[in-house]
Amino acid sequence: MAEADFITRLRRLATHPAARGLADDAAVLGDLVLTHDMLVEGVHYLPDDPAEDVAWKLVAVNLSDLAAKGAVPLGVLLGYPLGEAGWDARFVDGLERALARFEVPLLGGDTVSMPRGAPRMMGLTALGRSDIAPDRRGARAGDDLWLAGAIGEAGAGLAIARGVPGPAALLAAYRRPQPLLALGRALAPHAHAMADVSDGLLIDSARIAAASGLAVTIALDAVPCSPALAAFAGADRDSRLRAATAGDDYALILAAAEASAPALAALGAVRIGRFAAGEGLALRWRGAALAPPDRLGWEHGSAL
Ligand SMILES: Nc1ncnc2c1ncn2[C@@H]1O[C@H](COP(=O)(O)OP(=O)(O)OP(=O)(O)O)[C@@H](O)[C@H]1O
Ligand SMILES: Cc1ncc(C[n+]2csc(CCOP(=O)(O)O)c2C)c(N)n1
Ligand SMILES: [Mg+2]
Ligand SMILES: [Mg+2]
Ligand SMILES: [Mg+2]
Fold first, then answer.
1. Residue 304 pLDDT more than 90?
2. Which end of the chain, N or C, is surrounded by fewer C-beta atoms within 10 Å?
3. d(Cα 303, Cα 44) in Å, to the nearest integer?
4. pLDDT by residue (tens digit) across 177-189?
């Protein structure tokens, strides 16, 4: 089943308001923010990626959902399958470093065994607290779409991890994403809606629009492209489209009113699009309409 179809089935079960219609990055129960993301070997990371980096990534992708809700992390719970002893020990070392770096306590979890030869997978629940947790459903017609953080670097890093020669900084974007926690808290008071970019800039922007009952237009040429990414992947239209659909970015996107523009620009966010009445995603490139690609980003699913 496709991921979206499965979540659609779950929505019937998730009627509690804290579930936010399963249309947000996290559940919000009073001022508590709760999220859970998993990593699967071969799907989210490569089998020969360092165990320390896998632990980092597991923490970072969950804290990124807290960042998108403007939350301060309170703690995490780990679900972990035992495998090769050396790998497991390095994972714990990496986890220790990530938790220390983000000043988050490990509160608990569960440890299991896996059938021999099965790929590793692990889950983490992260809890945070936020006074203002912007919902993906809150964008308003006329709001601008803003981006904070880099797009496309992790996608380039995946190619490098697979063996294409390229700079360490891009590889690090893939293996050691940085959740934008402080930035998320600074952006949240301005955001009518906010999300992190995990599946891709285009698909996650389209999800804010869909959750808010709006259309969104993105100026692809307004999406920043770092010199390192341009040198590695090029900066032409097709490479910018690849960057905008690669995912794994853990940047933040938000909908905000014009009045917030100076504050958002001062925080380093970049205006890349606009919400309007209607539905769907439209793209522009150098002032002209550009047909969106068939694939807007990463979607899990099984062909079975
Ligand atoms: N197996 C599941 N059980 C309950 N809720 C789920 C399940 N899978 C997804 N959801 C919910 O669906 C919504 C969307 O989840 P999704 O994973 O797309 O968001 P995300 O975690 O921000 O993105 P990503 O996983 O790409 O980082 C969230 O409310 C999430 O809690
Ligand atoms: C080996 C390997 N191949 C492909 C990718 C790309 N990828 C996998 S899952 C995902 C979306 C985020 O995950 P989720 O939606 O589960 O949070 C992305 C962009 C990767 N990271 N590693
Ligand atoms: Mg998210
Ligand atoms: Mg998720
Ligand atoms: Mg996803």
1. no
2. C
3. 18
4. 999 999 999 999 9
Give the mean model confidence (pLDDT) for residues 202-223. Answer: 98
Which residues are within 8 A (CB) of 231 and not within 5 positions of it... i.e. 6 or more apart?
167
Phi/psi of residue 140, each to 5°?
Answer: -120, 150
Nearest to 148 by CA among 103, 175, 178, 104: 178
Structure tokens at 277: 């009445």
Residue type, position 251, single letter? A
**165 to 63, 154, 172, 302: CA distances (angstroms):** 30, 14, 14, 32
Residue 53 assigned ligand-binding role: no
- Nearest ligand to the CA atom of 155: 2
Over residues 51-72, mean pLDDT? 99
State yes or no: 65 annotated in a binding site: yes
Determine whether 289 is exposed, middle or buried from the number of CB atoms within 10 Å of its CB (0-12, 13-18, 19+). exposed
Closest ligand 2 atom, CA of 37? 17
The rounded Å distance from CA 6 to ligand 2 centre is: 18
ipTM of the complex: 0.99
Q: Is the pLDDT of residue 302 over 80?
A: no
Per-residue confidence (pLDDT) for residue 241, from 0 to 100: 98
| Plot region of 286 (φ>0 → left; ψ -120 to 50 → alpha; else → beta) | left
Q: Compute the distance between CA of residue 153 and CA of residue 171 in angstroms, rounded to an integer.
A: 8
For 78-125, how does the pLDDT look when each residue is reduced to its tens digit (9 = 90+)?
999 999 999 999 999 999 999 999 999 999 999 999 999 999 999 999
Query: Which is the closest atom of ligand 1 to the Cα of 199?
Result: 26
Sequence-ordered list of residues with C-beta below 8 angstroms from that of 273, at least 6 positions apart, any chain: 144, 145, 205, 216, 217, 218, 219, 222
